[in-house]
Design goal:
The chain is of the alpha/beta class. It is built from 8 helices and 12 strands. It has a single domain (6-38, 53-295), classed as Metallo-dependent phosphatases (Purple Acid Phosphatase, chain A, domain 2, 4-Layer Sandwich), CATH 3.60.21.10. Helix 8 links the parallel strand 7 and strand 8 (240-245). It binds fe (ii) ion (FE2).
């Protein structure tokens, strides 16, 4: 079987009509921005009650933390993750969004997560990471993941919003063309049907479209440049409102044509030495939002 390349990915996008859907997208979003329309605005605090609250959790990555042994690293990460779940259960957000890398070794995805999921008392979505379904994506890797988490991509509708979590492992070359096509078709339907139903949408993936700036080179931490613009423009054309990601182990706030792209703190290892924890995204009816840090544990690396 031939390898499914990034170029072929783009060709697939065009074949199913995504490229055609982009016609005029810049004008639409530019007009919204000029008139103070529907781009989200970050505020110090919301004036009224949020219409949507999401716990944005990144890279629990059990076993990746810094410790004297692999066993201790796993135990530390598990302790912090359990505390994170306790805090989420107490806060009762509308949704807990896990932006991938649920464990450090994909072989261990079924070790503790079945019990952890049972302990989570709010609706949740999981976008698989590269440590959950390894590169290159194979059907067996997907089955290993879905055996624990149910689906490799999924969506929920809450309070007039649709939150869509995709599997960004398909951003990298894979031989599994049928699986790949299935996600593209599913995603297209999810996003476009949300727009036509009058729902606001949020898209999430493990890998972010870009890390520091849109015009950056391909690397381990971003979407390939061939896909990045097509993908982001497609989201803009279909009125995606926020993008939630993981993978970077660094807290980041960027935007693309008014679309906030957010990466939160983790409970395993933060390369920027932030404390361990997660973020709570709260949005009101006017698209004002806060994205506040919730501490799980102090990071000893800050003292160095
Ligand atoms: Fe990752």
């Amino acid at each position: 079987m031939a390898t499914f390349t990034r170029r072929e990915f783009l060709t697939t996008l065009e074949a199913i009509g995504m490229a055609a859907a982009l016609d005029g997208f810049n004008w639409a979003r530019a007009a919204q921005e000029t008139t103070g329309g529907s781009s989200p605005t970050k505020v110090a605090e919301l004036k009224g009650k949020p219409v949507l609250t999401i716990a944005h959790c990144c890279d629990p990555q059990l076993g990746f933390g810094i410790a004297d042994s692999a066993e201790q690293a796993y135990a530390d990460d598990l302790r912090r993750l359990k505390k994170e779940i306790e805090l989420i259960n107490a806060a009762q957000p509308d949704l807990a969004l896990f932006a991938g890398d649920m464990t450090n070794r994909w072989q261990e995805v079924g070790k503790d997560w079945p019990e952890l999921l049972k302990s989570l008392k709010v609706p949740f979505l999981v976008a698989p990471g590269n440590h959950d379904i390894p590169d290159p994506l194979k059907a067996s890797g997907v089955t290993n993941f879905t055996g624990v988490f149910g689906k490799e991509y999924d969506s929920v509708v809450v309070n007039g919003w649709k939150i869509i979590a995709i599997n960004s492992q398909y951003c990298r070359p894979t031989d599994e063309k049928a699986l790949y096509d299935a996600q593209v078709e599913w995603f297209r339907n999810e996003l476009e049907s949300a727009k036509s139903a009058g729902l606001r949408s949020i898209v999430a993936s493990h890998v972010p479209p870009f890390v520091k700036q849109f015009e950056e080179k391909d690397e381990y931490f971003n979407f390939p440049t061939e896909l990045r613009k097509t993908y982001l423009d497609y989201l803009i054309a279909n009125d995606a409102t926020f993008y939630l990601a993981g993978h970077t182990h660094t807290t980041l706030e960027r935007q693309y044509l008014g679309l906030p792209i957010l990466n939160a703190e983790t409970t395993s290892q933060n390369f920027d030495r932030h404390d361990f924890g997660f973020r709570t995204l709260k949005i009101d009816d006017e698209l004002n939002y806060v994205w506040d840090f919730v501490e799980v544990e102090k990071n000893p690396a800050q003292k160095k």
